[in-house]
Amino acid sequence: MYEAFSFLVNMLIQVFYDLAYFLAFFGMVVYTFSLLILVMMPSVRENYEGTGVFAFLVMAFRTSIGDFSLDEYN
Hints:
Layout: H1 2-40, H2 42-47, H3 53-64
Helix pairs in contact: 1-3
């Protein structure tokens, strides 16, 4: 049983090892864009109480995965 799954386990370990470089780069890109949102949109920080750096990280991440709110463009 262990010999049958050893290839699959080794493959998953290698995939996550190779994916670490992409995730590190993607994290840097999301962090950079969240700082740009923070700098370029100071009105967002003034209008909403409690928006911190984490909220801007979430906004940048949602934009990077394609979560656009297009309902206002009807």
